[in-house]
Amino acid sequence: MNQEKIGKFIFSLRKKAGLTQEELGEKLCVTGKAVSRWENGLSLPDIFVINNFCKLFNITNDEFFSAKKKEKNTIKKLVINLFLSLIIFFVIYLFFVNCLNRYYDFHIYIVRSESSLFSVEGIIHINAKNKFLILSNLQYLGDDLSNIVKIKYFFKINDTIIFEKEVTDNIFIKNESVIFEYDSSDIDHDFCNNLFLEVYYVTSDKVLHHQDINLAISQFNYSDSITNR
Length: 229
Prior knowledge:
The chain is an alpha+beta fold. The protein contains 7 helices and 9 strands, in the order ααααααβββββββββα. The strands form 2 sheets. The chain has a 5-stranded antiparallel beta sheet. Strands 5-4-7-8 form a 4-stranded antiparallel beta sheet, with no helix packed on it. It is rod-shaped, with a radius of gyration of 41 Å. Mean pLDDT is about 75; it is low at about 170-175, about 185-190 and about 220-229.
């Protein structure tokens, strides 16, 4: 039994409780000087006072004489910590899976339209990061085409153009595609009935013309495509 160590233990418990030596002495029916002697390792309280001291600070006699509070309910704390850790891990896992699903989630729309002079085929691909239109076939139905100068792709609501993209290079090369790409944030409205192509073309008589084509769009159904094969 280390009297000096017990004195330091008494001192630390008293300080944590916010008590002066006199206040602790009053609670134990001793003087403040007696408490001072205990804390300086000069003496120990008698067994009756020790019992009252242990009750006051919610410790056992063994903890008093060993001058050390033992960890209580250690297994219970470990189980609680493990349970909380599992909950945190599960929440993070769900968040991660949700982010992956949103990132890889995509939709494909089929584009098939025909005007008096042009036939259009292609797809619109949409995912969490961007949208793009791929024109796989833009065919002139007349017989007097010289060349296509420019293609505009625009989104229009109530005759107001929300955005537009255009291509002017390498247009109408057979068996090649024209790709328009744009951020998903560009469009927040239902676009299925509001997408247009504006084609600028030159006929054999060297006259420049242009024609608007309203794109007819339908969602691609993978199961239907397999059934039709």
